[in-house]
Amino acid sequence: MSMFNNVPNIAYEGKQSKNPYAFKHYNPKEIVFGKTMEEHLRFSIAYWHTFVGAGTDPFGAAVAIRSWDSLSPLDKAKARVEAIFEAMEKLNLQFYCFHDADIAPEGATLAETNKNLDVIVAMLKDYMKSSGKRLLWNTVNLFTNPRYVHGAGTTCNADVFAYSAATIKKGLEVGKELGADNYVFWGGREGYESLLNTDMGLELDNLARLLRMAVDYAKEIGFDAQFLIEPKPKEPMKQQYDFDSATTISFLQKYDLTQYFKLNIEANHATLAGHTFEHELRLARLNGMLGSIDANQGDLLLGWDTDEFPTDLYTTTLAMYEVLKNGGLGRGGINFDAKVRRSSFEDEDLFFAHIAGIDTYARGLKSAAKLIEDRILDDYVDNRYRSFREGVGAEIVLGKSTLKSLEAYALQNNPIKLESGRLEQIKARLNEAIFSV
Q: Exactly one of 100, 102, 244, 294 is catalytic; which is it?
């Protein structure tokens, strides 16, 4: 039974097309920078926003119109499985992502919850086998239920910690069962409200202990997915322990976990941390920690996680520039952790939103490739730092300089000549690269 009767299969028709149900820039088989667009972008649908989100906001009730709304919890879960695979087929996308609570209703006990999960996981496995679709990553919800009011891995209650560990164990088993390429840890409530009643040292140590347990259990069951941590600075907690890329990398380095984890970086989380998306991506890339992307954007006039579908060509261009410089995302991908606006409450809006996001990233990919192939940014950077390739600069880079030798050089009283950074000129060329594709 079709869940989306009014939506046709969506194909590439080119930028001259006026068909709202067509890609204008995303041509899966088009070769860009040595690979197909499909291979570069590895798009994924987010189960939670797309098929569970109901259009609520802090001041308003659900408005989304979905054909499965009137069903019982387990039947609703089954209907959503049918819906996501139909949507992937119509959008010609190969991947999806979920939290455990997205796919199956929570029961009165952990055993009942696991039983519900088993029913839906078996259904997902059958649909994946028949369709060839894949699970980019899964994770578990350790933040919605009231038991997590003080956190999960960083809770002050050992019983909650144990429950969290058991939930992660099941999540890892589900990931293995479904062949997930990655497994994500998002610490929705791993932080604190006030230092006045917080043992920060114990909380951080316990979070590391939980992650180490997950590493050990994945090895035990033969689950070889790439582990990912998704940084977020605030909301719901005032101060979260995975604030941004730098904080998360520092945490992993302290607890000797860098060999097991990379980062899943979200655009809107970057802006909430006071950074640009490309800043977070580059920091991860330079540390060998760039694993995957949650694609969305925030409203810079609003101070919370609005999770809009990405339509900003500058952001997607600079994001894909970092991805290409990284040599790709490996087992990761670009997951649309984004939701339609509350006023976009009809089924068709789910597809229009994904078309917009997909085309925006496709254009970003082509523009980023042009930036690299034409060395538009590289030439400026190389020229700006050329003084470190010769003379005293080369000696500094090679580690041959000392404070004494540099003092002797400076005392020669050679006039210092500074040059312009040409930032406005660079931005003009960036405009040309973006709007020429």
A: 102
261's enclosing H/E stretch is: strand 261-266
Which helix (H) or strand (E) segment holds residue 178: the answer is: helix 158-178
- Where on the phi/psi map is residue 351: left (φ > 0), alpha (ψ -120 to 50), or beta? alpha
Choosing from 25, 40, 49, 99, the catalytic residue is 99
Average pLDDT over residues 35-43: 98
The amino acid present at 329, given as its one-letter code, is L
Report, in angstroms and rounded to the nearest whole number, the Rg of the chain calculated over CA atoms: 24
For CA atoms 254, 259, 261, 264, give the dihedral sign: positive
- What does the alpha-carbon distance between residue 275 and residue 294 come to, in Å, rounded to a whole number? 15
The token pair that represents 67 in the structure block: 């054909």
Q: How far is CA 245 from the centre of its chain?
A: 12
Residue 171 CB neighbour total at 10 angstroms: 23
Backbone angles phi, psi at 22, to 5 degrees: -145, 150
More reliable by pLDDT, 304 or 170: 170
Question: Is position 102 annotated as part of the catalytic site?
Answer: yes
342 φ, ψ (degrees, to nearest 5) = -60, -30
- Strand-pair category, 95-99 with 43-46: parallel
Q: At what angle do helices 347-373 and 423-435 cross, to 10 degrees?
A: 120
Backbone angles phi, psi at 141, to 5 degrees: -90, 105
Strand 22-23, strand 31-32: pairing: unpaired
Please give the pLDDT value at position 118.
98
What does the alpha-carbon distance between residue 162 and residue 34 come to, in Å, rounded to a whole number?
Answer: 47
Predicted confidence band at 235 (pLDDT cuts at 50, 70, 90)? confident
Helices and strands of the chain, counted as H and E runs: 16, 14
* DSSP state for residue 299 in the 8-state scheme: -
* DSSP code for 156: S
Q: How many residues would you count in the chain?
A: 437
d(CA 188, CA 376): 39
Q: Which helix (H) or strand (E) holds 46?
A: strand 43-46
- The model's pTM is 0.97
* C-alpha separations of 419 from 2, 30, 176, 380, 423 in Å: 63, 41, 55, 12, 12
Neighbours of 277 (CB within 10 A): 27
Query: In a 3-state reduction of DSSP, which class is residue 374?
Result: coil
Buried residues in 329-358 as b, exposed as e (16+ CB within 10 A):
bebbbbbbbbbbebebbebebbbbbbbebb
